[in-house]
Amino acid sequence: MSQSGRPNREKKLTTVARKSDRELVVTRTFDSPACAVFDAWTRPEIFRLWWAPKSMGAALSACEIDARTGGGYRITFGGDGSDSMTFFGKYLEVTPPSRLVWTNEENDDAPVTTVTFEDEGERTLLVLSELYPSAEPLADAVAGMQAMTVEQFAQLDELLASRRSSA
Question: CA–CA separation, 100 vs 128, rounded Å?
Fold first, then answer.
């Protein structure tokens, strides 16, 4: 407990930091085992429940995930109109429940993303790293990641907590 009498949330903090001029690293600890957190990233029926930040006001209209090495993904926010955004790529490495590596192929400046799930018993330390082809796109990504990822990970934390309580 903190001095204010509220539970200490430091371990829940999502951090977003530059690791180099081309790499961005996001960390967060979840109160769920690694297999549950890994499933939330690789099973489309779970992924679609937390990935779209609610503040965007746009749900995922399509979510295809073939989480195996050589498999692919395609995620679309919004409808079929001009306001939709689609992200897609392929999985370079899938090692359940500890590691995912994928390409982001929606543009030439897109990063390669690596997510590790460090098992800490009933907790998981998640580390997401995005390696960009050059320094320029990283500068634009930092601000967006700080806002979006914090909200996404809070939504994932809520989903994992609700799944634990209903189990």
Answer: 9
d(CA 137, CA 149): 17
Q: How far apart are CA 13 and CA 28, in angstroms?
A: 6
Q: Which residues pair with 129 in a beta bridge?
A: 25, 114
Task: Please list the rounded mean pLDDT of every run of 10 residues in the chain (167 residues).
Answer: 39 84 95 97 97 86 96 87 85 98 93 97 96 88 82 95 86
Report d(CA 158, CA 90) in Å as an integer.
28
The answer to whether the peptide bond before residue 97 is cis (omega within 30 degrees of 0) is yes
**What is the identity of the amino acid at 94?**
V
* Beta carbons of 56 and 77 less than 8 angstroms apart: yes
With contact defined as beta carbons under 8 Å apart, do 92 and 112 qualify? yes
